[in-house]
């Protein structure tokens, strides 16, 4: 029966101190996977199977798709940050030779909407609320003609007052982004905020929390019990995603259905959204993502560009390619919200933290979800916590999920305040964290990191001699075990011994192709290179979105279970072909041994040929977590426990120029069972580089007079490159939780959360004065030094 259970003993704990824990699991689950030290392939450094295709240009990205008769499209965005559209005239554009279709947007995606639409005068077209908001698009036989035709679309605007500065937006009498309360629903990639919170002017909130949606304990009592209180105000900037490949699709509407090639983190989400918008059956929409050039949370759902391209394809009767340019990318498809945080922490003289109170304001432009309370709520064992979060609407593009939404912002404030509390108490910052953080993995990470980094040699703040001062700092992260239950895979063993695995999961650059091959190879006793991996296509079994560090932990158990199922079926077929009982067949590694009167041994391929059938296959979906879930959340579940890591930074600060250089980083992280150490290290490297870039360089700049972004490119919008990247040392903990058939979790989010905070603490250690605003530019360093001297 499907609901029959069995008891198994699975490993739990950190490598070196692993114990067994009994779990009751479905009878169809494979045997427990032993620790990595006993495995052949899983946990090793396996080079990416698609590496050659990527470096030689053979890999086909969305921008590379070329179909017969394909048209090229150009989006037309508003030049104004706030306006009503009076008219749209497209006849001149449509008459241009080579133009095949024009579409004017009547329904906009991605922004908050008024709770009561009657509070705004009705309009055929969406109200313009940010510069760059898409208005229309054209499709033509060449990109040059599409670009020219876009200039011929005549749009008459009624320009309205606007505000792009979040401090000004909070003031009474500021221009209103929305004339009444507005909400934004969550998306496949997160975003949005709780509905129904109060709103006054452009300020929406507060959303109050501490332990879930309610305060924890009594912060007033907690501060009364404290012997001292540290408080400060911290600010972080808006950061844009800036993936190498911009958002885009190739849409092909035919009589048989709609096929879309998309640069997306969620093929299933794009399919579902397009099917709903165009009133198509799910079976009538196919979404393909062969390769994509990065996505940090902004590439979920169809997006306005995907919907527009589909409209154009339907009108023109031809496939349409629509790739956003870099300017559109900065303006209209997402960003990390800003934050202004007022944080108070109370502590006793023995180091016990008694209370945390966080007030946070942030702008997600015309969206919501700018909170930063996650670390304050979940990092430390504190009896009294209250967080209050406000969204501030501005006339700027909406935010989107961005690699641990809210957590780099919150960590920047929290971890600096923890260091400040430790200094006020005369304690080592690591000792204070040990006292208030019971997480066993982070405890080990602090110890390992301190030894490897040479933390004991840390000097007093500002004690470094000379004009170029050096300092070291530490910060840690918390993230959550997210599991997408709608995750499935099929594993096929063909009669010649070749093996395939299929799933709609997409690889956004993290290496999931190789990891799936490793899992199948481990189960069947073959090599990863012998497994053909087919992913990124909704024609395959459903796959999870790639976000929230959920990909590996969601799909690898399904793949292993499918491989186990296929292996079981192969044994059944082989036993029947050989006329022996299934118990006579022993499968060890890549060899199959058959006991009996005439014992024999075969390779995997020989055994596949001997079963006398074209193929066997196994299919499996993600099972419930062995240890249960904290709470159900639709198709996504929150598993028991958290992820995290501890990072150490060494910096040099030139007190004459204010230039900060990160000289060295050490990252110690947990991710459940490490599946591929090479991919893990790549993810941590990328997360740290992104965190350094956030700490020192990146910032969206909007002109307050025009509302237009003045650096919508990759020249003035500075991102850390090879010259700004320091040596990075990585230590990955091998940790087992006994939660699934692979025990894999994730690393994408924890890798970037603590970096800016660690750098900020190192800067303080170097110069003896705190920088409480990001990015930590030379001007801000010099101003802080001047303030200290004053």
Description:
With 790 residues, the protein is α+β, with helices and mostly antiparallel strands. It contains 18 helices and 34 strands. It has a 7-stranded mixed beta sheet. Strands 10-11-21-20-19-12 form a 6-stranded mixed beta sheet, with helices on both faces. Strands 22, 30, 31, 32 and 33 form a 5-stranded mixed beta sheet that branches. The longest helix has 28 residues, at 551-578. The termini are far apart. The model has no long low-confidence stretch (mean pLDDT 95).
Primary descriptors:
18 helices, 26% helix, 34 strands, alpha+beta, 28% strand, 790 residues, 7-stranded mixed sheet, 6-stranded mixed sheet
Helix content: 25-40%
How is the biggest beta sheet arranged?
7 strands, mixed
* Overall pLDDT metric: 95
- Give the DSSP E fraction (strand runs of 2 or more residues): 25-35%
Give a short synopsis of this structure:
This protein is of the alpha+beta class and 790 residues long.
Topology (elements, then pairings):
Layout: E1 5-14, E2 19-26, H1 51-56, E3 71-77, E4 83-89, H2 91-95, E5 99-104, E6 113-114, E7 134-140, H3 143-152, E8 154-159, H4 166-169, E9 182-183, E10 199-200, E11 203-209, H5 219-225, E12 228-236, E13 239-240, E14 248-254, E15 257-262, H6 267-277, E16 285-288, H7 303-316, E17 320-323, H8 326-332, E18 335-336, E19 339-347, E20 353-362, H9 374-378, E21 385-392, H10 407-425, H11 429-436, H12 440-453, E22 468-484, E23 488-494, E24 499-503, H13 512-524, E25 531-535, H14 551-578, E26 585-588, E27 591-594, E28 600-603, H15 604-610, E29 615-621, E30 629-631, E31 636-654, E32 660-670, H16 677-696, E33 728-733, E34 735-736, H17 755-767, H18 778-789
Parallel strand pairs: 3-17, 15-16, 20-21, 24-25, 32-33
Antiparallel strand pairs: 1-2, 1-34, 3-7, 4-8, 5-7, 6-9, 10-11, 11-21, 12-19, 13-18, 14-15, 14-17, 19-20, 22-31, 23-24, 23-29, 26-27, 27-28, 30-31, 31-32
Helix pairs in contact: 10-11, 10-17, 13-14, 16-17
